[in-house]
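Entry 14. Structure prediction run on the chain below.
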Amino acid sequence: MIPDMTIGQMMTEATSRWGEIWDPRATRMTILLLCPRKERKMMELHGDMIEHGQPVVAVFHRPRAEAHLLEEQGFDPRAASFQFVNLATADLGPWMQQLVNNEGWLRSSIALTSTPFSVGLPSQRPFEAVQTLCFRHPSLPPLEQYFLPYPAESLPGKCFVSLPRRAAAEMARQQAEVLGVGRLEKPKPPAPEPTPEPQPAPVDETPSAEPEVEAPAPMETP
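Output returned:
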């Protein structure tokens, strides 16, 4: 998670942040996911369970002053979390497969529209309405229009980044080698033990026995 960023800023810094993981030629798109608010944490971690080929960047938006514009469409904004996800087109299938097949998420199209000035937002930048893909949890009603103060790629907030696991692991390994850590060095052969010098034979200091002197034979008396 990277605070105080926008999807657009992350795209601008992608090459310097992710190096070879990032493919600037890959076609990308931004979709809107509507999930029950209680499942927001699961959506923050969704990328950890998915094999994808390119980095995925997501940001949540909470309607405040414009909430009544959703209520007018029969949608309770307090019941849902609204997540914008920017991903490579080739990763859309893997990213949504489990949600659609196992949990019954529904696909539709939604108009992202600039919030009317009459709402009185303190800060906003008008933009042309765009149609984008929308996936919603089956417990949530459909929504035709979603109102934003800025284009989706310019919404500031916490950016949740999901990197391809294999590519990220390889990048971490390469960075570790550049920093001089993590490389396996061949163990040095043990130093040969010094050959012991020959020791002189011990000298026997036991005193030698004195030779026995024979007593003179007795002289005969004449």
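Residues 2-177 form one domain.
Filed with the rest of this week's runs.
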